[in-house]
Amino acid sequence: MASIKFTTKDIFEQDFKIGFRGYEPDEVNDFLDDIMKDYDAYEAIIKELKGEIARLKAQLANAPKATTLPVEDSETLRTERTTSATNFDILRRLNRLEKEVFGKQIAQED
Questions:
Q1: What is the pLDDT of residues 41-71, one digit of tens each?
Q2: DSSP 21
Q3: Where are the domains of the chain?
Q4: The predicted structure's pLDDT at residue 92
Q5: Whether the Cβ atoms of residue 32 and residue 10 lie closer than 8 Å to each other
């Protein structure tokens, strides 16, 4: 994972050299102020998410193992139902196609 190179304080204290045709200092400062606000927001989000991860890991460690099995079983059932419904639809379509194709041939042979 990449490490964070700058803090909000580093960005705030950064000075730029002003050349003959340099950037407008006020514009640069306004832009850096916006970057600092975003950076603070990102840090808050990261802190919140790390706390949530720790809480969920603790909850998972304290959860009984039996509660996780029915969830997996229900997922398996849901997948099997979807597969069987799909197979049924395919068989029904094949049946219609066979009646259409072979039904005409059988009627002609009689």
A1: 888 999 999 999 999 999 998 888 755 545 5
A2: T
A3: 1-63, 66-110
A4: 80
A5: no
State pTM to two decimals: 0.44
Full DSSP string of 31-86: HHHHHHHHHHHHHHHHHHHHHHHHHHHHHHHHS-GGGHHHHHHHHHHHHHHHHHHH
- Neighbouring residues of 14: CB distance < 8 A, sequence distance ≥ 6: 32
Distance between CA 77 and CA 81 in Å, rounded? 6
Q: Is 39 in contact with 4 (CB distance < 8 Å)?
A: no
| Cα radius of gyration (the chain) | 33
State which amino acid sits at residue 41.
Answer: A
What type of residue sits at position 20? F
pLDDT at position 45, please? Answer: 92
